[in-house]
Structure formats: structure tokens, C-alpha cells
Amino acid sequence: MILFVKLFLAHLIGDFILQPDRWVIHKEANKIASKYLYIHVLIHFAVTMLLLWDIHAWDIAVIIAVTHYLIDLTKLYVNPLFKNKSALFFIDQFLHIVVLYACTYQNNTLVHLIGYFEEMNWSLVTAVVFVSFPTAVIMNKLLQGFSDQIELDHKSLPNAGKYIGIIERLFVFAFIVLGKWEGIGLLIAAKSVFRFNDLKETNSRKLTEYILIGTLLSFGFAILAGIVYTNS
Q1: Per-residue confidence (pLDDT) for residue 160, from 0 to 100
Q2: HEC sequence for 140-206
Q3: Cα(174)–Cα(230) distance, rounded to whole angstroms?
Q4: pLDDT tens across 27-80, in order?
Q5: SS3 sequence, 73-101?
Q6: How far is CA 61 from CA 43, 46, 109, in A?
Q7: What is the DSSP letter of 18?
């Protein structure tokens, strides 16, 4: 495991700390002709060797450098095909991590991966999934009758409320699993502060009640999931 941690740290340093934005822009403009593409790959090789601190591990560093070059080069050429650039970024990072994982466990990669899934805490995974999008859908159905009566006179980010709710439920669930119930109070206080100005400006009793009901439902689902999981 420590090998994977070192390789992942080298990846983080090479991809996010030692790669200026101007390098990224230059690579996107010049693709395979960009000198920074090759400098970037050499940096990954050097940082990997430095963290491993073992001359006999040169083959791992070479594999990582070569695959990194191929993945990044492919990314540069398929980039115009993606409207959602964030999706391409996460695909790129996922492929790099797969390479690191394969280099760590080499011939035992598949066996280790199967063993990892067999030992996974499926109750925890189920609880986390439940408090995310499924709960968002359930809440939307429960609050649909109220939301139709709310008139909003301001614009907000698309689906921002849904994602805020998911994040807050994940925090609440984590606090319960860790036994830090006081963190839930801190979260409620922080949300109240941010919501105060919105409610003050709109001066709408319906909106206030709607937000209060939604918050209590959101926290309630997360608390219920946390209690069921911790007592299962």
C-alpha cells in the first residue's frame, strides 16, 4: 500500500503542483509539438524516482512516464470532442490512477481488486448512496406540492440546491458515523448564517417555511441513515 501512496503523491506533485497553467495552455495549443508535454513527463519520471528512492524501481517510473505521455497526448487530441471538459479531466485522472494501481500490484492486480471488493463495507456504500441522489429524488417528490407555491425572484445555479443538499447530508452522515454529533449543530448554524440574507431580502414566509421543511427533511434522512448504519 505504501508503494501506491508514494506513486499517487508523485502524481499529485507532477500533475498539480509542478505544472503551471501556461504549460497546460501551451500543450492544448501545440499538442505533440509542445515542449512542455515532454518536460511534464520527465518531471513525473523524476519525482517518481525521487519518492521511491530505489534505482531498481526505474522500470516502474518508466512505465508511469510513458503511459502518462500516451494518456495526456490522447487527451489533447480528443479534447475538442468533449463539450464537458470536466468529464475529460476526470477520465484522464482515472486512467492515471489505474496505471499507478497496476504498477503497485503488478501481476496480482486483478486478485487484489477482487479481494478489495469482497472486503468492502457494502452497508456503508449503500448508506452513502442512499443519502445522495436517491434522497434528493425522494425529497423532491415530498416537497413538490410546496415548491409549486414558491415564487422565486432571483436566479440560482442549475441544480445547486440539490447538490448542496447532497453534500450536507454526506457531512451529517459522516458526523454520525464518527460519533461527532456536535458537528451537525455547527453545520446547521453555518447554513442558517448563509440563508439569513436570502430570507431577509425576500421577506417571504412561504419561502422560509419551505427552506425549513427541506432542511429538516434533509437532515432527518441523513440522521436516520446514520443511525441505521451504526446500529446494523
Answers
A1: 81
A2: HHHHHHHHCCCCCCCCCCCCHHHHHHHHHHHHHHHHHHCCCCHHHHHHHHHHHHHHHHHHHHHCCHH
A3: 11
A4: 999 999 999 999 999 999 999 999 999 999 999 999 999 999 999 999 999 998
A5: HHHHHHHHHCCCHHHHHHHHHHHHHHHHH
A6: 11, 8, 18
A7: S
Question: Cβ contacts of residue 153 below 8 Å, gap of 6+?
Answer: 202
Q: Which residue in 9, 10, 20 sits closest to 43, CA to CA?
A: 10
Would you give the end-to-end CA distance of the chain in angstroms? 29
Amino acid of residue 114: I
Q: Which three cell numbers stand for residue 79?
A: 479534447
Q: How many residues does the chain have?
A: 232
Q: Is the pLDDT of residue 153 over 60?
A: no
Question: pLDDT, tens digit, for every residue of 68-112?
Answer: 999 999 999 999 898 888 999 999 999 999 999 999 988 777 777
Q: Which pTM value belongs to this model?
A: 0.79
Exposed/middle/buried for 172, CB within 10 Å: 0-12, 13-18, 19+?
A: buried
